[in-house]
Design a protein that fits this description.
- The protein is α/β, with parallel strands linked by helices and 172 residues long.
- The longest helix is centred in the N-terminal third of the chain and has 12 residues.
- Helices cover 26% and strands 27% of the residues.
- It has an 8-stranded mixed beta sheet with strand order 3-4-2-5-6-7-8-10.
- The chain has a single domain, classed as Response regulator (Rossmann fold, 3-Layer(aba) Sandwich).
- Strand 3 and strand 4 form a beta hairpin.
């Protein structure tokens, strides 16, 4: 069963869903053993189709470092030119194009994160949903294995682990 994590809310502060999602995405970085990147190249965290989330991530990631490298948040309006991404969040985007991208990059060491109901079936690794202030995580074990990323057992315990391979031929 996926955990339900309520946001910490002070008497005078309310955390928006987007801020909660940004904090969670940044925290995911600690649960993955990342392969070595290009020396001196920032750790790229890419966001497609959700500019406000990219802005929230950028504001929160300024001092963050991964393997001694700074985190660079890159916003894209499409699934083009994303080969340098290490973590890729895909917002609400064309399902067919998302499926095609995920199929083409299924063996790349990219942690793909999404929020749509079909994301895991399309071959995404991790789905985040927030309902009534509670976070739900689903991890596609088959997709995660294909990426060759080492995912912490702590994350595996926090997420509902599913084993979903994308349905063949639906990307056309």
């Amino acid at each position: 069963m996926a955990p339900a994590v309520a946001p910490a809310v002070g008497a005078d502060a309310i955390v928006s869903t987007r801020e909660l999602k940004a904090a969670l995405i940044l925290r995911l970085i600690d649960f993955i053993e990342w392969p070595a990147g290009q020396p001196g190249t920032p750790f790229q965290l890419c966001v497609v189709a959700d500019r406000p989330l990219a802005d929230a991530l950028e504001a929160s990631a300024k001092a963050l470092r991964v393997g001694g490298l700074p985190v660079e948040v890159v916003y894209q309006s499409s699934l083009q030119n994303l080969s340098a991404c290490r973590l890729l969040f895909i917002g609400t985007y064309d399902e067919r194009k998302t499926r095609r991208f995920l199929e083409q990059h299924s063996s790349s060491p990219i942690l793909t994160v999404g929020e749509t109901g079909e994301f895991l079936l399309a071959g995404g690794v991790l789905r985040i949903s927030i309902e009534m202030g509670k976070v739900q995580l689903e991890l596609n074990q088959a997709a995660a294995t294909n990426t060759r990323l080492q995912i912490s057992s702590r994350l595996m315990r926090l997420a509902k682990v599913v084993d979903k391979l994308p349905a063949p031929g639906r990307a056309q």
